[in-house]
Write a structure and sequence with these properties.
Blueprint: E1 4-7, H1 25-33, E2 36-42, H2 45-54, E3 70-73, H3 78-90, E4 101-105, H4 122-125, E5 128-132, H5 134-141, H6 148-155, H7 166-186, E6 189-195
Parallel strand pairs: 1-3
Antiparallel strand pairs: 2-3, 2-6, 4-5, 5-6
Amino acid sequence: MPNIVSVDLVPPVLWAVPDLLPADELEAERKAMGVLTDYFRAVDAASVVEVLERADGGSPLGAEPPVFDGVEAKRVDPTVVLAMLIAAIRQVQWRVDLVKETTVWPTSPAPGPDSPGDEDDPWVTGPWVSELNPLVRDTLAAVRDSELPTIVARWVQAEELHGARVEDMQPVAEEIVLLTRRAREAGEQLYCWMCL
């Protein structure tokens, strides 16, 4: 049976994305509205798409029992908040390309530079699923348990986590790290399902 853990941030996180590029405006708007995020592991993108098609795009963790091993981590989006954790681990500055992603859902062609005109377009409405670069999985999986409190203390200093406390974020980081270790050991990829 898949392992699922639910973690929620308390208090709510305020989102402020530094130095947005024009292409990032739609994503920043989604984050400002409050995003649900589930991280999970799977063998490949094809298996993820197959499950999403059966669930009409719903979270693979929402099924009973969950289809994939994962963690519900509300508001921990890959581009900003997870990337801030990666930056804290690597002791580098956050940058927009720190967490590289490949979109696997929706499966329709991505909109052009003028953005989708139809408000029902799945690229506008979501959900969105991306496969994270294996380097992200491996960076998280390699964190020593003894180092995590120090890393989380650096992570919560990020402006994007304004008001978050170490004691709130520590369990989130622990569950994500444990998930990435299981993914690495199984030779699986790390995915993120996001929805407004």
